[in-house]
Structures are given as structure tokens and as C-alpha cells.
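User: I want to check something. If I give you two sequences, will you return the structure for each one separately, not as a complex?

Assistant: Yes, each is folded on its own. Here is the first sequence with its structure:
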Amino acid sequence: MPSLLDMTDVPMINILEKCDYKSVLTLRKVCHSLRNFIDDACFKTDLAKIRIAIGPTGFSVTCHSNAYWTNEIGIARNWTSDDLKIFLKMAQNSKLFDLYVKTHPDSSGGFDDLEEILKNQTRPLKTERFTMEGAEILKVLPHLDSETLKEIIIKPANYKFDYQNLDGIEQFLELQQFKNAVSLIIDNCFLVRADLRKFFHFQGVSVKIHEPSLEELAALKEAFVSSTHMEFFNLNVRGLDENQLEQVFGTPFHDPRGWQWFFEIQNYKEHVLRIEWTLRGLIFWKMEAKEVPQDAVVQH
């Protein structure tokens, strides 16, 4: 009977693709020949979600598979960069649902290692959602597949400091990954200094913009009422007053939750744009026309 090593590449790859990722890692330890074949082969895994925590002593990795979505199927602690390199090389042939990277204040060296691993992959890592804890977004995001990525979430590494800055915001806004994504959530701890119009291509946005002009606010409203894709825009902004908002949006409808404005959306009679001004800023969202308060005026 032929052994596993006597098989040709096609049946070997078929076997590997039937294995969960932990079994593949176990097979890799059997002998040098299997290790070399697995390292060089191009096959898909069952990985769906990867969480990488970068600490001062190494990497911790938590995984989920499609078959066991609700449960963690693998936890590795204190991995070296070589361990992570092997793992991510195996993952690059799969399409992930979520990649989550968490940083530590003393993990700058590990972050550089992760960036180098991703940079040297033969193919960009495919994930539909990317979540980052930390400001160094440019160390990871440019190395993800821009055609697959749909959602970007950026959180602070800690919440001790308000108004943190994102590293390299200008480069971030020009990345194809940023331009192709449909949803962007940047935690309010980050103060983004950028033109509001850079964000109009998203379906949903939550961001704190530094001092947007009244012209930019008017442009956001016009973009929303003429858009076929915009659904939600949470704009955390301070310093606006009633006169400025009336100048841009007209006379408001007064509601216990705050001021509101309603506008028709072109070619969408069933929906309207609702703008709400609260203590946290302005919220733009598409709502069903039948939910507009009876006394409110829907502007053209």
C-alpha cells in the first residue's frame, strides 16, 4: 500500500483541504518531507476568523473555523514570528470572515515582525472584515486583499487618552483597501483630520472629524440625498451651534432626543434622509418615509 508521501500533489492537496487547520499543523510535524510539502503547497483551510494579539513576549493567536463558528478551535500563546509566519502562510489561501489584530504598549517589535510577514506573503491575506486595536493601521491594512475587504474597524489600544491620532492618515485615505471598503468605524477616541468628502463612498461610517466646515456638512447632505448606496453616517463633531446648523439644513423639527431634519432621497420615495443632532454630534441615516413624525416637514 502506498504511503502518504507516495501520493501525487493533487490527492495530497485534496486531503489537506479536508483537514482542519490543527490537523494540518500536526501533519507538518510528522517529517521533513510533509513539512516541506505543506509549506510549499497551495491549499485552502477551514479558517474563518483569526485574532492575533501582539504582546511583549510573542504572539497569541485564537482561531475559529466555519464548522465551529461559535467556539474557539485553537489558541496558541507565546508564538515566535517564525510560528506566525508558518500559520499565516497557510491562511493566505483561504478567505477569512474576520482578522482581528490587538496590540500591546510594549509590542512595537512584534508589530514590525507582523508587518514583515504580511509584506512577504506571496498573496495578500483575504478577509472581509479587519479590526485593529491600535493606531498603526498602515502596518497591516496595505497587505490585505483590497477586493475582499469590506469592513474596517479601528479601536484604540487603550481608552486612557482622548483624541488620539491615527498614524499616516493621509496614506490611509489613499489606500485601495480604504477606497474599496463599504463600511468604516473609527472609534471616537481618534480625532481624524481629513476632508469629510473622502468618506462619501462608504455605505456606513462612524468617525470623529476635526472641525468639518459648513460646506462639507452641506456636501454630505447632498451626497446622501443623491446616493444609491449611503445608509448611515455617524459624524462625531463638537462646536456647532443652532444658527450654523439652521444655515445648512434649514428649520429643524424639535424632538426630545434633539433637533431633526428630513429630506427626500432622489428616486427613493419609500425612504428619506434623517439628520439628527445630539450631544455626540450629527447622525445621518436612511429611514422609511412612513416613520417620519406626523408634524415634521420633509424638505426637497
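And separately, the second sequence with its own structure:
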Amino acid sequence: MARWSRVFSFLLVAVTLAALLLPGTATARYVVEPVTEEYTGEWHDLEEITFWDLPPRVMTLYFLLTVLPGLPYMGELFYALSLLLPLGFRRVMRHNVLDDDFRRDLYRQITTNPGAGTTELRDLTGASRGRLRYHLDVLIREGKVAAVDYRNRARHFARNQRYTALEKRIIANLRDETPGAILAHLLRSPGATRNEIAEDLGLSGPTVSQHMQQFEAEGIVTADREERPFRYRLSAGARGFLNEHRDHPRPVGRSSTEGYPGARGHEVPSG
């Protein structure tokens, strides 16, 4: 800062000398003559003039003399203003991120409803899209929440809940009505065919086939292709997770929990 102060001081002196000396020495001629007669003209009082009545050169000089001395101290001014910020605001950090009432409630909803999407969280909290997006970003930035992109939709999980990639995919499917119903059916009836699933759930055959292809690619379902029609079963990891988490939330939009492990109250045999 001291270096910049010297630079500005030197610049101020140079500009002042240039404005005062150069125009006069370059163009003016001085003639000194003795006074030989008394002034007989009329005397007038001095007239007051404003800043805007000054010549442009004088206005510029006046502006420079006013502004330049304060430039070296702009950094100190901004620093002083920054000290006032804590009086009304504070920085959100990991240790105080849940002090906000809405953010704490949002985090509780994500903990209670792992895998919830943005639309579902809006319904649970009643917040506007912009407000929800802001507080979600804060929770993600401070490491409280993880957002997982699953089938072009963001799914949210609390960081303190440890799920594997397979478990997150299962949870995300359980939160949607159709894929959740299919997984529940396979948990009840391992080895079911496409037509059996479609008939029991009131779905079309192509809809069931589409979900089965996705489940197979994600390691959730296996298909027995040695017989026709194909028979589908949950993978060992998926079945173990669903049996272990019988109280997992039901998919959004279902009116009952029938067919879900939590509603049945016991483990479904893996036969």
C-alpha cells in the first residue's frame, strides 16, 4: 500500500505542475511597463462563479486535486466496510449451516426421505423453486447433502447415510410409483414373468420390459433366459438390501404400502 501511495503522490505532483506551468510557459509573453496615469475606470465588486463556470482545464485540475489524494486509501475503506458485515450477516459454514430453520427442516426431510427428488422436496417443504434450489445448493456445498443424477433427475441423500451405488439406485426406484411397484412384486414373487407382472400391476407389457432392461443394466434384476418366457428375479444385493430395510419409504403416489417389506412386517423368503 505504501508503494501505491508514493506512485499516486508522484502522479499528483506531475499533473499539477503540467497543468499550471506548461500552458503558460509555452504560449504566454510578459511585458512590464511602468504606470504613467491613474486608473479612472469604474470599480466593481467580485462576482461569485460556480464550478461549472470554470474553464475545462481548471475543472479537470480541480477534479484531479480532489480525487487523486483519496485513491490510495480506497483499499482501507473497503476493508473497514467489510468489518461491518458481521453486524447484520454471517458466512454460512459447515458448523452453522443447520442454524437456519428452513434449512434444518429441509435436511430432516432428506434424511427421512432418502433419494427424494426436487419436486418431492418442494411438496414436503412447501418452498418455492428458487428458495429450495438455494438452500439445497448450500447443503451440498457444505457437505451435508449429496445430489446424485439418476436417469436425468437429481436424487438427494444425506451424507451421514452410507449407501452403495446399487442401494442408491434401488432407493431412487422405490420413490417412483411404477418401478417401485415392480420391485415390490419381484420381492413377493421371485421368478415372475413379464406378463404376470403386467397383469398383477395393471401395466402394459412394453412398460414392464422397458423397466426390466434398465433394472438388468443397473444390477438390480437378473433374468433367467434359459426358458420362455423369461423369468425375472432380484439380484442378491437388491434382495438383501430390501429385506434389511423393510421400513423404507413407499413410492410417491401409492395409497398403501401393500407388497412392501415394511407393511408385511417380515422378511420375504428368497426362494
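Because they were folded independently, the notes below concern the second chain alone. The two ends are 78 Å apart (CA to CA). The longest helix spans residues 2-27.
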